Amino acid sequence: MDISRREFTKVGCRIIIGATAGTTIVESLITNGIAADNSPDQSGYDWEKHFWGFVVDTRKCIGCGRCANACKLENKVPFDEEVYRTWIERYRVKKTSLETREEEVVIDSPNGGIDGFVDDIPAEELKKSYHVPKLCNHCDNAPCVQVCPVGATYETKDGVVLVDFQYCIGCRYCIQGCPYGARYFNTEKGTADKCTWCYHRITKGLLPACVQACPTGARKFGDMMDKNSEVNKIIDEERINLLKPDLGTKPKVFYIGLDREVK
Amino acid sequence: MMLENLIWGYVYPNESEIQWSILIVLYPYITGLVAGAFIASSLYHVFGKNEIKPVARFALLTALSFLLVAMMPLLVHLGRPERGIEIMFTPHVTSAMSGFGYIFSFYLTIVVLEIWLSFREDIVKKALSSHGWKELLYSSLALFSFDISEKTLHDDEKFAKKLAIIGIPSAAFLHGYVGFIFGGIKANPWWSTPLMPIIFLMSAIVSGIALLILLYIVAMKIRKHAIDHKCLQSLAHYLWIFLILDVTLELLEIISMKYASREDIDIINRLLSDKIGFTFWGVQLTLGILIPFILLLMVSLIKKRDTLKMIMISISCIFVVIGVFAMRWNVVIGGQEISKSLSGTLTYVPVFFSQEGVLPAIIIFILPFIILRVVTSILPPWKDMEEETQKLN
Ligand code: SF4
Ligand code: SF4
Question: Is B143 inside any structural domain?
Fold first, then answer.
């Protein structure tokens, strides 16, 4: 065959360009593919050796809001937007007349409880009142992971549900899919966002910021692979409950003293 | 604060903003019109309902025009639209949303092929009789194959029929699937029902037929041509049948929710009586189904008086397309107006000028009509629509 030199170079160039572009694409696909299988590069941290769990003791919570505040500070969650990685709910059950037997429950969480709560119902009118801290349950069968169309939301080997900000397309399907209202839309990134159990801290042996900030020990965090961890002890010994257990999401936030009004 | 008036009871703090706006209402609405128009055309192509023949090809072009914009509301709504294509490259198979790109493309291929086959004879004739850029346009549309002998045309027709047979389940799938995107969300009691796909499908067919009827009447008026009343009334008849199926399913869902009275019934009742009370009972059911149902029933009872019937059919169709839009609204927006805490409701306030506002929604909704205008000028479907009837004045 008779190929002129110019043509030959042209063809050659194309092959080279094609090949490089091709490999780059393939490479990026592979890296993306295996990113989730490799432990994050935290020196000495092996995610096969941990499985994290969280305990909330609602009996201890006084609704001071320090945890929610600490979370926003630690994770740079905007203070001026109504978005929260963790928040505190207050439940107040009013006294009922014996005739009507209709129970009135007033639930609120002003600014996620960050600024504490105001007593706007006189104590005499109340039967009981308690606080329930909430956060992402890092469900073991997480609907948010299930519904993400690109796999940007995933569960790590150590049991934490995370969002890959480089990959999320911002469709917000996961926000719809989460039964607990734990997710929000990060307007700056254009992606979904939520609690990470302070993954950047726990992989360095620190506690999540909210746990650290809680003055009463209502929040506990620990390794469920470690037999002696406080979290394991509580799960073994206390009567614990989960939020919306009927949905089959298998939450990994365990509650002590959960009342029936809590949804 | 204004926000507080919009919220009743307790909603989770992160829920204060509605995530899926009017664009996501538009998305199932448009795909529904596509599926409906396609199924209307297959009444002729597959089931050999000859009275539909005048609009069969027109219906295909309508389906195509709407299909071409079906993706847009989704794309515009994404937080990171530039990554949207990842749904095709790295789909996450457990997600009800991840298949959309594939189903969409598959269906688009079918519709395009179907159109090509049913217009091939026209295209070839045009290619052979025109000159210059037109010749080029039509020759390339014909893919430079100019064989229109009896036999090939017959083969085309056979193939087109086969395609349409695949087309029906895929149209059903396309839209049933959209229903599943909502029906599969167990977190939301208003969405999570196995009936959702089939309800979506029935309302899709209803809206598609109604739109087709309206477009047919408008097109004939513009072209100053008489209307084929036989075709019109038979379309109206199918519309009536599908309306019955549609309303049965919609009521079935509400009745079983109310009868079962689960944990979420209080909030559902509040949604139905307060939040979407008007758009649900008033627009979706009364205006969109009950009135058209009665009007269409009368159409089939009245003898003669074609003009009156045409007016009644047109009114029904206008009500039906509005009613189905309300249905999409009630699902998409209604579902987000109840808190997942089941203890409160919130209110969606549409914004006009914003990426997710009413303006882009209007623009996206006008586009298919422009596209339809363009495709019908390239591939005029008028011949079949007009051969039975005569030109006015
Ligand atoms: S609580 Fe919500 S966001 Fe967290 S893992 Fe479960 S479903 Fe996902
Ligand atoms: S918003 Fe992001 S993380 Fe959530 S489902 Fe969509 S792509 Fe996945």
Answer: yes
Distance A85 CA to ligand 1 centre (A): 11
In a domain, A11, yes or no: no
pLDDT in tens, A33-63: 444 445 555 568 999 999 999 999 999 999 9
Question: Beta strands A52-57 and A219-223: pairing type?
Answer: antiparallel
What is the tens place of the pLDDT at every residue in A162-209? 999 999 999 999 999 999 999 999 999 999 999 999 999 999 999 999
Number of domain units in chain A: 1
- Nearest C-alpha of chain B: how many angstroms from A9? 32
Residue A140 maps to a domain: yes
What ipTM did this prediction achieve? 0.91
Stretch 112-141 of chain B: residues touching chain A, C-beta under 8 Å: none
d(CA B363, CA A152): 31
| In-domain check, residue B393 | no
Closest chain A residue to B90, measured at CA: A150
Number of domains in chain B: 1
**Residue from B22, B21, B113, B98 nearest B67 by CA:** B113
Return the residue whose CA atom lies nearest to atom 8 of ligand 1.
Answer: A144
**B88 and A CB contact within 8 Å:** no
Q: What is the pTM of this model?
A: 0.90
Domain span holding position A259: 51-263
